[in-house]
Amino acid sequence: MSGHKIFITEVALRDAHQSLLATRLRTVDMLPIAEKMGRAGYWSVEMWGGATFDACARFLNEDPWERIRLLRKEMPDARFQMLLRGQNLLGYRHYADDVVVRFIELAADAGIDVFRVFDALNDLRNLATTITTVKRLGKHVQGAISYTTSPVHDVKTFVELAVELERMGSDTICIKDMAGLLAPEAAYELIREIKARVKVPLALHSHCTSGFGNITYMRAIQAGIEMLDCAISPLSQGTAHPPTETIVAMLKGTENDTGLNLDVLSEIAKYFGEVRKKYKKFESSFTGVDMNILRWQIPGGMISNLENQLKEQKALDRLDEVLEEIPRVRRDLGYPPLVTPTSQIVGIQAVLNVITRERYKVIANETRELIRGRYGRLPGEIDQDLKKRVLKGEEPMTCRPADKLEPEMARLRGKFPDLGDEDLMVHALFPQIAPKYFENRGKVPPEFDEEHTVSHHKPLYPQMPSTYHVSVNGKSYNVVVENGFVDGAPALNFTGEDAANTGVMFNYPDF
Ligand code: CO
Q1: 502 Cα–ligand 1 center, Å
Q2: Residue-level pLDDT at 302
Q3: d(CA 80, CA 496)
């Protein structure tokens, strides 16, 4: 083992509850333990990201900006970390540079210290503005590689990305394994190769969906990893992460000792054990291990949600077909890593391919945009026929997509002259939910009101506004993926005679 301290990032306040509890953990349940978390010895505490911002505004009637400030009061010395989707910020499209810059300034002002930035396609041009801005503000840039496996990805691909991320100014680099695909030996080789080429410390973020998690972390340590993402035990494993205490105890007294205090961790674990019970109704039904993830490459939360939604629409018998179709669509689109927003795009196209019983009979607008280069450069070649059908002779975009976007801030300020910039960002990122959010901010949501406890789980889903015309069994249907949400989910709603029987709601959380 390399003789160095392992730094731990605790993800309980962001990815862990996003993976296990539909991102519903409220600030009120974070504050009582925050002071203790602040002195546990973590390198950083991840507590913000796209889904947490979205869930605060959409479901919790909470001001996401205020959460940062409230937590800061309780843990003044902790490093606060957030996950940022590069030019997509916390949303699902590319934003103009002026929005990206202003957003990062506001986040830094509110108290974010470490910005982990990634692009779903690993098109690093989409990280240029975010990295430059975070650097200018004197904050920590952690450039992230979206890890995947495919015929067009190999160790060399990821090493080159790491070298470029360091060149662009990353203070640390993260291997972001959002679906838990990274096998122990692959991790060892990848980390060794990256470490041979870059000087900045390396972090690993992984999930336990495939069951690799804990073993992969051990092998990563042997390869010289410096930083690991862990979740306090009651919020660990399954679709979440390796447990903090296990990693800390495993390394205790070795040359890789984390320096974390197990007694404090034990108190934090006890607290979250109790808190988790309060969120039982939001729990993912997928909490175990599924090796199929290596083929599907989709996050566990996505499977259970697909399952629930297809069940509700009496279309559960199509689930296996959809799951098998996802890797084929991904291949056709040049093997993008599956992470927001590409995971949603590939998923929706797979559903359309299955329910219409003809592949690409209906091509979603987002699929077209991806093929047109509007999200950036795809890792591999797009299927020739599909490309021809979508482009129809048109040249795909080859520049950085945001180069074609007009500034947006002035227009937003003109439209909402009474709002401060933090509130303006809610409009910029989530225009459909903003009005309801401003109306309900501060009110206890009905799902947390004991008198109105709902029994079913309403997960968090990204917005995918589109309309499709679909013909099923000779009947024509209008399929709408709503601008807003149906029960918190973007829906593929079939309207027509057989609407009740053929509707498919398709959705899943992001990772
Ligand atoms: Co994750």
Answers
A1: 33
A2: 66
A3: 49
Ligand 1 center to 138 CA (angstroms): 25
pLDDT band at 479 (very low <50, low <70, confident <90, very high): low
Average pLDDT (196-213) is 96
What is the structure's pLDDT at 462? 41
Rounded Cα distance, 285 and 283, in Å: 6
CA atoms within 13 A on the CB side of 155: 14
For the cut 50, the answer to whether the pLDDT of residue 506 exceeds it is no
Inter-residue contact 371 to 392 (CB < 8 Å): no
Residue 128 Cα to ligand 1 middle (Å): 22
**pLDDT, averaged across the chain:** 87
| Distance (Å, whole) CA 277 – CA 497 | 42
Condensed to tens digits (0 to 9), the pLDDT of residues 357-370 reads: 999 999 999 999 99
Confirm if 264 and 78 have CB atoms less than 8 A apart: no
Q: Rounded CA gap, 227 and 204, in Å?
A: 6
Which distant-in-sequence residues (6+ apart) come within 8 Å of 381 by Cβ? 334
The residue whose two tokens read 């919790």 is 60
* Ranges assigned E (strand) in 147-219: 172-176, 202-205
**What six digits make up the tokens of 17?**
């509850």
Q: With DSSP H G I counted as helix, E B as strand and the rest as coil, what are the percentages for the chain, rounded to 5? A: 45, 10, 40
Residue 28 has pLDDT above 50, yes or no: yes
For 497, half-sphere exposure in the C-beta direction (CA atoms, 13 angstrom radius) is: 6
CA angle 467, 468, 472 (to 5 degrees): 145
Span from the CA of 474 to the centroid of ligand 1 (angstroms): 42
Report phi then psi at 204, rounded to 5.
-125, 130
* Ligand 1 geometric centre to CA of 239 (Å): 9
Choose between 344 and 127: higher pLDDT.
127
Q: Measure the CA–CA gap between 185 and 195, rounded to whole angstroms.
A: 15
Helix (H, G, I), strand (E, B) or coil at 504: strand
Distance from the CA of 511 to the center of ligand 1, in angstroms? 5
pLDDT tens digit sequence for 298-324: 765 566 666 766 676 677 899 889 999
- Which pLDDT score is estimated for 305? 60
Determine the Cα–Cα distance for residues 491 and 480; give it in Å rounded to an integer: 7
Mean pLDDT lowest for which of 64-73, 306-315, 334-343, 374-383? 306-315
Contact 370, 338 (CB under 8 A): no
Q: What one-letter code names the amino acid at 403?
A: D
Is the CB of residue 83 less than 8 Å from the CB of residue 178? no
Q: What pLDDT, on the 0 to 100 scale, is given for residue 300?
A: 55
* 502 or 470: which leads in pLDDT: 470
Which structure tokens are listed for 263? Answer: 């007694």
List phi, psi (to 5°) of 356.
-90, -5
> Over 50: is that where the pLDDT of 198 sits?
yes
Calpha distance 488→311 (Å, rounded): 17
State in Å: Cα 332 to ligand 1 middle.
25
Please give the distance, rounded to the nearest whole angstrom, from the Cα atom of residue 348 to the centre of ligand 1. 21
